[in-house]
UniProtKB/TrEMBL annotation:
<protein>
    <submittedName>
        <fullName>Transcriptional regulator with XRE-family HTH domain</fullName>
    </submittedName>
</protein>
<dbReference type="InterPro" id="IPR011051">
    <property type="entry name" value="RmlC_Cupin_sf"/>
</dbReference>
<dbReference type="InterPro" id="IPR010982">
    <property type="entry name" value="Lambda_DNA-bd_dom_sf"/>
</dbReference>
<dbReference type="InterPro" id="IPR014710">
    <property type="entry name" value="RmlC-like_jellyroll"/>
</dbReference>
<keyword id="KW-0238">DNA-binding</keyword>
<dbReference type="Pfam" id="PF07883">
    <property type="entry name" value="Cupin_2"/>
</dbReference>
<feature type="domain" description="HTH cro/C1-type">
    <location>
        <begin position="5"/>
        <end position="59"/>
    </location>
</feature>
<dbReference type="InterPro" id="IPR001387">
    <property type="entry name" value="Cro/C1-type_HTH"/>
</dbReference>
<dbReference type="Pfam" id="PF01381">
    <property type="entry name" value="HTH_3"/>
</dbReference>
<dbReference type="InterPro" id="IPR050807">
    <property type="entry name" value="TransReg_Diox_bact_type"/>
</dbReference>
<dbReference type="InterPro" id="IPR013096">
    <property type="entry name" value="Cupin_2"/>
</dbReference>
Length: 187
């Protein structure tokens, strides 16, 4: 991960300090990541990549083509998490986020999300520009947005300004499935 970050930073003619300033993270954090002495949280990595103007999926899968189709089968959905979570190791439990089509082309990201029991997006709350909403299809999920929280069950839904700190956790003993949308795309 460190080599990829350095490669992108150098290609954009940015110093570590300049990237840190534009990302809102400490300068030392960029250096630690680039030398593989530290792995950032998902939230920190999003901030850093925001300073480069790229998404998480572009960072981890830069050359993969996205089908320019209208209809998609389950196998056509783009897995945005398998490499991300095994590399960062910050979230707890297994979760899967699969994207429908080309989110950037439509300025809308639609995700099919699965959370195993105990899965958690991490203690570092997520924050990004835009709006986010979804519907719980099965199971239940705890959603924390700012200082509010709720346990959402099948049929329950949510919609919020995603610049508010938020976190998803499956605190039940069975899998939770959520279909969500975010505009603009953030992964």
């Amino acid at each position: 991960m460190g080599g990829r970050l350095k490669e992108l930073r150098v290609a954009m003619n940015l110093s570590q300090r300049r990237l840190a300033e534009s990302s809102g993270v400490p300068h030392g954090q960029i250096s630690m990541i680039e030398t593989n002495r530290s792995s950032p949280s998902v939230a920190s990595l999003r901030k850093i990549l925001g300073g480069l103007g790229i998404s998480l999926s572009e960072f981890f899968e830069p050359d993969s083509a996205i089908p320019a189709d209208v209809f998609f089968k389950p196998q056509d959905l783009r897995d945005l998490t398998s490499r991300l979570f095994t590399t960062l190791g910050e979230p707890t439990g297994h979760m899967s986020l699969r994207q429908v089509g080309d989110a950037r082309a439509h300025n809308l990201q639609i995700l099919y999300e699965r959370y195993d029991p105990g899965a958690d997006t991490g203690a570092s709350m997520l924050e990004h520009v835009g709006s986010e909403g979804g519907i719980v299809i099965s199971g239940e999920i705890e959603l924390i947005v700012g200082d509010r929280s709720a346990i959402l069950k099948a049929g329950d839904s949510y919609l919020f300004n995603s610049s508010e700190p938020h976190r998803f956790r499956n605190i039940s003993d069975r899998e939770a499935v959520v279909v969500s949308a975010c505009s603009p795309p953030y992964l």
